[in-house]
Structure formats: structure tokens, C-alpha cells
Design brief:
Layout lengths: L4 E5 L4 H12 L3 E6 L2 H13 L4 E5 L7 H11 L6 E4 L14 H29 L3 E5 L12 H21 L5 E5 L8 H4 L6 H5 L5 H13 L4 E2 L3 H12 L2 H11 L3
The chain binds NADP nicotinamide-adenine-dinucleotide phosphate.
């Protein structure tokens, strides 16, 4: 019998590459998707060195036809997805009134639209076979509004809410849905979000992608609904849910000012 296949988006580096490594270590073949063909090939070579089969699918997932192109790429390679890891995403630190609106809309397309489209396309077959699952990478940003990164925080609130609802819908089907909600992680994210000068980065301890991926994989394998890696991040997420909203937003705004 062939190994199950995990499709990981945003697998050319950071948390996605580390998640691909976790799935490979646990007996999965992996399909790696992101824009950078070179980055994906480097990750695939590392996985092959550990004995895993890795397929490389270079694709831009922030364009409206991104998900369709990826699904076609999988079909061309005759690959059936058992586990979908929706990890590709980016943020941008800029107040909305000063931001590049086209960048914000690309963020919505990647963080929300593509994640939803891939889920809609791949879930029916998983349910039919009564196995598989979805691991969606949200963020502690999902638990509160994020002044100066408003669209990013809102996009992650969508990812968390969507995944929690999927978890309930899928109960009893043999298919699972898990939201991984990391706090700050050292990766390409900080450069992409142009947030290097922020107080948030100066003050926040950063986890490694490897540690986050290990915790995320374990939660997925147990069929958990959501997981926030690390005690400080758990407290941050809880305070987002239960503290007075104006107080939380004032703090987040202060932390996210450059
Ligand atoms: N780092 C953090 O502090 C943090 C915290 C909480 C949640 N997260 C979430 O974790 C996920 C992974 O981020 P990361 O920290 O690993 O950041 P990263 O190192 O910047 O990785 C982002 C990945 O997404 C891919 N990607 C970006 N734009 C894409 C596009 N248009 N089409 C296809 N792939 C694209 C990138 O590859 P290419 O550039 O090759 O396309 C890369 O593989 C994101 O959803 C992020 O929101 C990150």
C-alpha cells in the first residue's frame, strides 16, 4: 500500500517546510506548493535525504486561479491528497489608510480564498473515503483585532472560525480539522510583513518553526480542534478572548507601531 500524501502550501521555508518534515517523518509522502521553485526543490532534497517522497508544485496561490492551478498540477501528477495543510500566508504592518490596497487584497486571496477553495475541493473525497484531514495555520492574531495589521488579524480570525466549524461538521466522518495558532515564529514572515522595527518583535520571544511544527503535527494527529503552541501564547490568546476589547486593541496597536 502506498504512503498517504500530505499537501503542504507555503512549503518553501518557515513553518510550512517544518510541517512537511514532520509529515514526512511520520510516514507521509508530501506535495510541496509555493512560488519559489528553487526553495521547494531545496526542501524536497532535504526530505528525500530522510527517505521521504516529495513532489514539487511551484504555484502562486495569491491569484484568483491559484487554487485551480495547484489542483490541476496534482491531477497532472496523478496525486490524491489525504491531508491538506493550508499554511501559505503573509501579513503586512501598515495602517489600512496608508497600506497598498492591492497587497491587502492579495493577502485576503491567499490567507482566505485559496485556503477555502482547496478545502472545498479536497474535503468531499476525504469524507467519501472516511479518512484524512485538514491542518490550517491560523495565528494568535485570530483571537483579537489587530490595529496596524488589521487585514492580517481578520484573515486569521476567519481561518480559526472556519476550522472550528469544520471540526464540528466533520465529527463522525473519520476526517479531522485542526487550527494551529502560533505566536511569533522566526521565519520569513517578519520581512514579508515589513515589521522589523516594531515593539512586538523587540519584546516577543520567538519560537522556531521546527518546534511549532512538532506541536502542530501532534495536535493534528490527535484530532484536536485547535492548538496554541507555548504558555505565553496561550495566555495571549486567552486574553484576546476575555480582556476588554479597547484595552487589548490599545496594547496591540502600541506593539505594532514602527
Ligand atoms: N512567523 C510568524 O510569526 C507566524 C505566526 C503565526 C502564524 N504564522 C502563519 O504561518 C504561516 C507560515 O508563515 P511563516 O512564518 O512560515 O512565513 P514564511 O517563512 O514567510 O513562509 C511563508 C510561506 O508561504 C509561501 N507563500 C507566500 N506567498 C505565497 C503565494 N502568493 N503563493 C504561494 N505560496 C506563497 C512562501 O513561499 P514563496 O515565497 O516561495 O511563495 C513560504 O513558503 C502563515 O500562514 C503565517 O500567517 C506565522
Amino acid at each position: 500500500m502506498s504512503a498517504p500524501l500530505a499537501l503542504v502550501t507555503g512549503a518553501s521555508g518557515g513553518i510550512g517546510a517544518a510541517l512537511a518534515m514532520q509529515f514526512a517523518r511520520h510516514g507521509y509522502d508530501v506535495a510541496l506548493a509555493a512560488r519559489s521553485a528553487d526553495g521547494l526543490s531545496d526542501v524536497a532534497a532535504k526530505l528525500a535525504g530522510k527517505g521521504a517522497k516529495a513532489h514539487v508544485l511551484p504555484v502562486d496561490l495569491a491569484v484568483p486561479e491559484g487554487a485551480k492551478n495547484l489542483l490541476q498540477g496534482l491531477k497532472d501528477l496523478d496525486l490524491e491528497v489525504d491531508v491538506l495543510v493550508n499554511n501559505a500566508g503573509f501579513g503586512d504592518m501598515d495602517p489600512v489608510a496608508q497600506a497598498d490596497c492591492s497587497k491587502l487584497l492579495s493577502m485576503v486571496d491567499l490567507n482566505i480564498r485559496t485556503l477555502t477553495e482547496l478545502s472545498c475541493a479536497l474535503l468531499p473525497h476525504m469524507v467519501e473515503r472516511r479518512r484524512g484531514g485538514i491542518l490550517n495555520v491560523a495565528s494568535t492574531a485570530a483571537y483579537m483585532p489587530g490595529p496596524n495589521m488589521a487585514v492580517y488579524y481578520a484573515s486569521k480570525a476567519y481561518v480559526l472560525s472556519f476550522t472550528e466549524a469544520l471540526y464540528a461538521e466533520l465529527k463522525g466522518t473519520g476526517v479531522s480539522a485542526t487550527a494551529l495558532c502560533p505566536g511569533p515564529v522566526k521565519s520569513g514572515f517578519q520581512d514579508a510583513a515589513a515589521m522589523k522595527g516594531s515593539l512586538l518583535l523587540k519584546l516577543s520571544p520567538m519560537m522556531t518553526p521546527k518546534k511549532v511544527a512538532r506541536i502542530g503535527y501532534r495536535a493534528f494527529a490527535k484530532g484536536r480542534r485547535e492548538i496554541v503552541p507555548g504558555l505565553a501564547n496561550k495566555m495571549m490568546a486567552a486574553s484576546g478572548r476575555f480582556s476588554p476589547k479597547n484595552m487589548t486593541m490599545a496594547l496591540v496597536k502600541r506593539l505594532q507601531t514602527q
